[in-house]
């Protein structure tokens, strides 16, 4: 076969293999680079999370130790008696000051502001009631109050946990525990994040408590409330997460944790946006080397494969060239013991071999088939001539029958078109019904939500009414007790009146005795003058006692009148309170009835919701079926119209076919002549 001036597929194969390999290598390299960089970013982010978590856990442990210390102190008998013995409490505080390096101070204050502290002296005349830790604890009595972190005299950051409580005599007391953040500062110093990471702990007002690391850090005590990182953390609605600053990237995202909504302590960690520069450069360099090496290997393999494939294609081409000239020759098999090239091995006919081996087998089978076909054509050409006449007669009969079928199909097409239009109208109507059902379904869902909300409000109203009823009964009991106390006081006033009457009698008798003594003193002459003076003084005292008892009687009478009025008003209040109790009971009964009715309505709405869902599901099924019917009907209409048109074309084709059948005999004669030209080679 002459190959001069022909094109070769070898270069194309090499180009395709190189392009595919290059694309695969680049894709793999880019994917590896991206996944590796993502892993490095995740490593840094995990380090940031771990560092912040460690700091927050340390802060939580600090809070728990202070909380436990305050609770343990409060359980001591010194704080649960009838009074607070400050001297004994001072000794107790001294013993509790030691044993925990995180706790730098414990102290106690009574409701007069007098305070004692363990192993330390407090300023003279200090009123603890003016201190924030005292005010905060009293404001939330019974629970531990935490002050905002602040710097003490030594310069370290501390926070105060204080607890307000009452003893058996209902006297208020406040325990305070100072905890130091120095342990957290030591923890932060030992944390490491990437190459340029840092960890910062600050208050929720932006005051830096500790900042350590290899990257950007802040001086202790600096306020960074105006900084971008603080504003980003403050404005984030999440308690923890990542925020990206302006000019930053995925690498430099800041991780923060606010612990809880009302926490005064925030922690965040950050790294420089160039933190992964060293790893990135190394990754790019290694990826480039890998790409070059793989391209060289791929090129060598591609060149070798292309040469072998070209040899196999040339061998097949030589046999196809002989076949094109009518020389049908089969590809010979390799003889046993004969040394063959790689091309001969891969083109050796073998049904169980590789693709080219099976292609050689297929080619030999094609040669065998063509040989048999040539022999058959030579023998069957005569029969073709004989059947041509019979085919002409059949074609004329087919033409007549096709014409009748065409008329029938045209009628079917008209009926199917009408049916398709009616079905499409039914689908439109069902769509409108579906929209109505959907609107009803949405209304039912809204009604269901509203009934649930109403049930919740009714339940809340019933609970409130029960509390009001209980509180009002307690109030009536207290008013009855008050009335009894006023009645007792009125009785005591009557007893005082009796005592005053006795005093008045004694005063009158004393006055008479003093008068008699004056008379006797006058009778005694000069010797009785001294006794007369005493008698006169006794008469004055008796008169003063009489005047005083008269004033006391007026006061007692006023008290009695006021107490009587109070008893009457209390009776009126009790009677009104009884009516109010009846009204409250009536309101509770009505609310219960409304709640039960609302629950019944909720049950009905749920039933209606279930039914509407079933209706909507059934409507969707019907709509789907009807749409399928409509689509099928339209397809049938189009098909019948197409069949009608095709039948007319078939009719014309049959008529044309009848004209050509006459030429078939002539073609059969030519076919016999041409088949005789083929030569079958062994």
TrEMBL record:
Where does this protein reside within or beyond the cell?
Answer: Cell membrane
Q: Name one Pfam family in it.
A: MCPsignal
Among its keywords, does the record have Cell membrane?
A: yes
Which Gene3D superfamilies does the record cross-reference, listed alphabetically?
Methyl-accepting chemotaxis protein, PAS domain
Q: Which SMART domains match?
A: MA
Keyword set includes Chaperone: no
Q: Which GO terms describe its cellular component?
A: plasma membrane
- Write out the entry's keywords from A to Z: Cell membrane, Chemotaxis, Coiled coil, Membrane, Transducer, Transmembrane, Transmembrane helix
Domain Methyl-accepting transducer residues, every copy? 394-651
Q: Write out the coiled-coil annotation as residue ranges.
A: 469-499
User: What is this protein's record name?
Assistant: Methyl-accepting chemotaxis protein
């Amino acid at each position: 076969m002459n190959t001069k001036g022909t094109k070769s597929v070898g270069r194309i194969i090499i180009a395709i293999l190189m392009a595919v390999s290059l694309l695969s290598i680049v894709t793999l390299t880019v994917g590896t680079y991206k996944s590796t960089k993502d892993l490095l970013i995740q490593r840094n982010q995990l380090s940031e999370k771990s560092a912040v978590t460690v700091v927050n856990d340390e802060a939580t442990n600090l809070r728990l130790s202070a909380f436990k210390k305050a609770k343990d102190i409060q359980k001591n008998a010194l704080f649960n008696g009838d009074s607070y013995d400050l001297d004994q409490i001072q000794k107790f505080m001294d013993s509790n000051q030691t044993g925990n390096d995180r706790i730098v101070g414990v102290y106690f204050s009574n409701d007069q502001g007098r305070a004692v502290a363990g192993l330390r002296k407090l300023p003279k005349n200090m009123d603890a009631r003016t201190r924030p830790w005292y005010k905060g604890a009293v404001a939330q009595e019974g629970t531990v109050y935490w002050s905002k972190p602040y710097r003490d005299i030594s310069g370290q950051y501390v926070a105060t946990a204080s607890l307000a409580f009452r003893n058996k005599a209902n006297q208020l007391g406040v325990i305070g525990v100072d905890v130091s953040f120095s342990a957290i500062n030591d923890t932060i110093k030992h944390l490491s994040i990437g190459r340029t990471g840092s960890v910062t702990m600050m208050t929720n007002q932006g005051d830096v408590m500790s900042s350590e690391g290899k990257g950007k850090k802040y001086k202790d005590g600096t306020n960074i409330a105006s900084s971008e990182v603080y504003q980003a953390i403050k404005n984030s609605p999440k308690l923890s997460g990542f925020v990206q600053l302006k000019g930053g990237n995925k690498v430099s995202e800041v991780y923060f944790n606010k612990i809880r909504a009302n926490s005064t302590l925030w922690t965040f960690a950050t790294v420089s946006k160039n933190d992964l520069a060293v790893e990135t450069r190394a990754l790019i360099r290694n990826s480039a080397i890998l790409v070059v090496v793989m391209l060289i290997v791929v090129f060598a393999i591609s060149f070798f494969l292309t040469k072998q494939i070209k040899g196999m294609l040339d061998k097949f081409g030589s046999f196809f060239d002989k076949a094109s000239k009518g020389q049908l020759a089969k590809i010979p098999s390799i003889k046993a013991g004969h040394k063959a090239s790689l091309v001969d091995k891969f083109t050796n006919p073998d049904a169980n071999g590789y693709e080219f081996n099976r292609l050689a087998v297929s080619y030999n089978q094609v040669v065998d088939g063509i040989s048999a076909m040539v022999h058959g054509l030579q023998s069957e050409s005569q029969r073709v001539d004989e059947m041509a006449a019979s085919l002409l007669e059949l074609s004329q009969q087919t033409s007549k029958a096709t014409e009748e079928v065409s008329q029938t199909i045209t009628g079917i097409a008209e009926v199917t078109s009408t049916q398709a239009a009616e079905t499409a109208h039914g689908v439109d109507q069902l769509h409108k019904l579906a929209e109505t059902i959907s609107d009803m379904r949405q209304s039912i869902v809204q009604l269901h939500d509203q009934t649930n909300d109403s049930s919740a409000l009714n339940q809340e109203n019933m609970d409130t009414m029960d509390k009001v009823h209980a509180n009002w009964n307690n109030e009536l009991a207290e008013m009855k007790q008050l009335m009894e106390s006023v009645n007792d006081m009125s009785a005591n006033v009557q007893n005082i009146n009796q005592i005053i009457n006795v005093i008045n009698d004694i005063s009158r008798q004393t006055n008479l005795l003093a008068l008699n003594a004056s008379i006797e003193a006058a009778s005694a002459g000069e010797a009785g003058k001294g006794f007369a003076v005493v008698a006169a003084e006794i008469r004055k005292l008796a008169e003063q006692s009489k005047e005083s008892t008269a004033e006391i009687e007026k006061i007692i009478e006023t008290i009695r009148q006021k107490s009587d009025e109070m008893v009457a008003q209390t009776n009126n209040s009790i009677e009104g309170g009884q009516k109010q109790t009846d009204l409250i009971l009536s309101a509770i009964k009505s609310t219960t009835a409304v709640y039960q009715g609302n629950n019944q309505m909720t049950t009905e709405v749920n039933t209606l919701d279930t039914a509407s869902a079933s209706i909507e599901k059934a409507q969707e099924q019907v709509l789907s079926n009807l749409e399928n019917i409509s689509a099928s009907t339209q397809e049938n209409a189009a098909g019948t119209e197409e069949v009608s048109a095709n039948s007319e074309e078939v009719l014309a084709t049959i008529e044309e076919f009848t004209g050509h059948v006459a030429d078939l005999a002539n073609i059969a004669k030519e076919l016999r002549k041409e088949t005789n030209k083929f030569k079958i080679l062994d």
